[in-house]
Amino acid sequence: MKITDAAVCPYPNGDSSVRRLALEAEALGFDSLVAIDTPSARYGEVEVRNGLFIRNAGMKDVIAQVKRAKDPTTVISVKAGDAGFNRGVVGLRGVHILRGVHAADRNAFDHVTAKMAADNRVAVDIDLSVIIAGRGIARQRAIQRYRDVLVLERRFEFPLTMSTYARSVLELRAVREVSGLCTLLGMDIPDVERAFAGVDRVTTPPKPSVRVI
């Protein structure tokens, strides 16, 4: 099982180079990173995967950007919107992750969308930055939204991913720290392990159910 931080933001989107982020992540126990708008590479023992994050876009623009993504190894994510938009996104072939569910309306990710995400192997991302840096009501609201998501995840078994959105090496967190933070959401160790492995799960083609010999 690969332990993956599903979103970091290297320079110029952040303050640290992708190499520094990768080497620090390796020291903190990670095997791979998804780096937004950064070519795929390897630094030390850490695999860096290119990430495309589509945000503030209508459905037509999302479809166009997904079609323009030429690298088949790119991890494609879309920022959550209302319920209809989210259902369209998780039903779109080529999308791997739905992000920002904590900031969407409470009913924007419901049991219908959860079932579609499970059927299409689209992950819901847990943004740790809002737990780490958030304060007051905003932080409590995000925690409750993620608890709601986890209720649906246990019922429908759609994938999860885990992201720090680190813009510098100082914002990265060790695997043990992440596991501790996730207890605030009601996650146990198997939940955390599934989320760390979520990127591999949504980007690896499923094995055929029937083998012809």
Provide the descriptors you would attach to this structure in a database record:
single chain, 213 residues, alpha/beta, TIM Barrel, globular
Report on this model:
The protein is 40% helix and 18% strand. The chain has 213 residues and is α/β, with parallel strands linked by helices. It has one domain (4-203): Metal-dependent hydrolases (TIM Barrel), CATH 3.20.20. Strands 1, 2, 3, 4, 5, 6, 7 and 8 form an eight-stranded mixed sheet that branches. Strand 1 (4-8), helix 1 and strand 2 form a beta-alpha-beta unit. The protein is globular. 39% of the residues are buried.
Average pLDDT figure:
94
From the alpha carbons, calculate the radius of gyration and give it in angstroms: 16 Å
Determine the number of helices (DSSP H or I, runs of at least 4 residues).
9
> Quaternary state, please?
single chain
What is the CATH H-level superfamily?
Metal-dependent hydrolases
Q: Judging by the overall fold, what is the CATH architecture?
A: Alpha-Beta Barrel
Fraction of residues in helix: 25-40%
Largest sheet: 8 strands, mixed
CATH topology: TIM Barrel
Write a short abstract of this structure.
Strands 1, 2, 3, 4, 5, 6, 7 and 8 form an eight-stranded mixed β-sheet that branches. The protein has a single domain, classed as Metal-dependent hydrolases (TIM Barrel), CATH 3.20.20.
